[in-house]
Amino acid sequence: xxxxxYDLFVLGAGSGGTRASRxxxxxxxxxxxxxxxxxxxxxxxxxxxxxxxxVYGAHFAEDxxxxxxxxxxxxxxxxxxxxxxxTNVLAEVxxxxxxxxxxxxxxxxxxxxxxxxxxxxxxxxLSTGEEIxxxxxLVAVGAHPAIPDFPGNEHGITSNEAFHLPxxxxxxxxxxxxxxxxxxxxxxxxxxxxxxxxxxTQEILRGYEIALRDRLLQISLMKGxxxxxxxxxxxxxxxxxxxxxxxxxxxxxxxxxxxxxxxxIPNTTGLGLEAAGVELDNGAVKVDADNRSxxxxxxxxxxxxxxxxxxxxxxxxxxxxxxxxxxxxxxxxDYGCVPSAVFSHPPIAQVGMTESEARQKxxxxxxxxxxxxxxxxxxxxxxxxxxxxxxxxxxxxRIVGLHLIGPDAPEIIQGAAVAVKAGLxxxxxxxxxxxxxxxxxxxxxLR
Length: 447
Ligand code: NDP
Known about the structure:
The chain is α/β, with parallel strands linked by helices. The protein is built from twelve helices and 24 strands. It has helices at residues 15-26, 41-46, 48-67, 82-106, 159-162, 179-190, 210-223, 311-326, 355-362, 375-380, 409-421, 426-430; strands at 6-11, 31-34, 110-112, 116-120, 123-126, 131-139, 143-145, 157-158, 171-175, 194-198, 226-228, 233-238, 243-247, 253-255, 257-260, 264-266, 280-281, 284-285, 298-300, 340-342, 348-352, 365-372, 386-393, 399-405. Strands 1, 2, 3, 4, 5, 6 and 19 form a seven-stranded mixed sheet that branches. A hairpin with a 5-residue loop joins strand 23 and strand 24 (399-405). Helix 1 (15-26) packs parallel to helix 8 (311-326) and helix 3 (48-67) crosses helix 6 (179-190). The radius of gyration is 24 Å and the shape is globular. The N and C termini lie far apart (68 Å). The mean pLDDT is 97.
């Protein structure tokens, strides 16, 4: 007698839900996953993956210009075909969507293409009306873009729609100055749009090392991006073929598109969680270190829990959950030293504490930095400097933070993050011979 229809019912087939479903099934569990939109979730369908492909596409604008200094004849009347890039990117998204679906099928996971709502500690109801029971329920439904509340906000888009735009707007106002705003500002700018970044505070990329944020701001201003700080929406006025954005402290801005990049909200509304005894904190599911909610049979992972909103974290949480409860291998995610990157132009990457965090936590810190013009930029005549900063514990010399802005910074930080996570010291870096000529060699030559 099997008391439940499934051992595990997963809500949401994004990065975290897919990993948890696949691994639990591989461990022998009977698993079903409900997905109301497309298997793959935010990262694969409308986030990290298509965004990164647009970043690559955008970079050609600078590369083609720089190519002339490297001897290539590049015509002046370069044409960029957005339709072609968009079609190719969306085809790649389709390919990944199929690959994720195959992975679930191959592992014997039942995929239900429907919205599911929790009706009790062990039960869910599908939008088809079907009721399903499971020993455990895993909520992995992610988050959605937050849209500020003000008159005319219905005229704006979010990053979800950016991948499907019929044309690149000539003028775009991006609200917010976090990850998404800075990444899309770079993308739209390279595709020829005039970009205005508007933020409620005077800061961009709050939480990142201040010297790097300043550098990105300087470079962005030099490229012609416009910033409106201390600006809050008053209203958006729609005209026949453009929008006028009225805001506090600034003149109105007339643009062709407004994009909101003002944070993301966990997808818990209407999910039935409270009725099952699941407590929320500001809309996010409250969980313990084992991803368990306040209802013992309901668990949650990924952006719906509002811990660190990053795909690799959701994947680790899904793996840890499946290994702990179906693989007889209790595992908890270590949230220390998580590297992150902003795929702006140029990109920023970091791991560990900023200088000011380290000063507050450790008291005594030593800071080393290198402010240099990458070799390729020198020959290209591109006046963009990179900045690397290392923060060390003043007493032990241990590296507690590494912060880079410059070409390929995310690729470089991934390798260096292993060393920071392993607790290596500045002396360990200095003992490593430089690989010349690279930008990454600056890491072992810092003064
Ligand atoms: P962020 O939290 O990075 O930035 C939000 C921005 O919007 C900030 O500038 C903030 O201002 C502003 N803001 C927040 N609330 C409001 C509001 N009510 N009205 C007006 N402005 C507001 O969010 P994003 O939307 O850029 O990204 C969401 C999450 O997605 C990120 O936290 C990140 O975890 C993830 N992500 C990660 C990426 C990566 O790893 N490369 C890429 C894209 C997204 P201020 O801070 O000045 O107060």
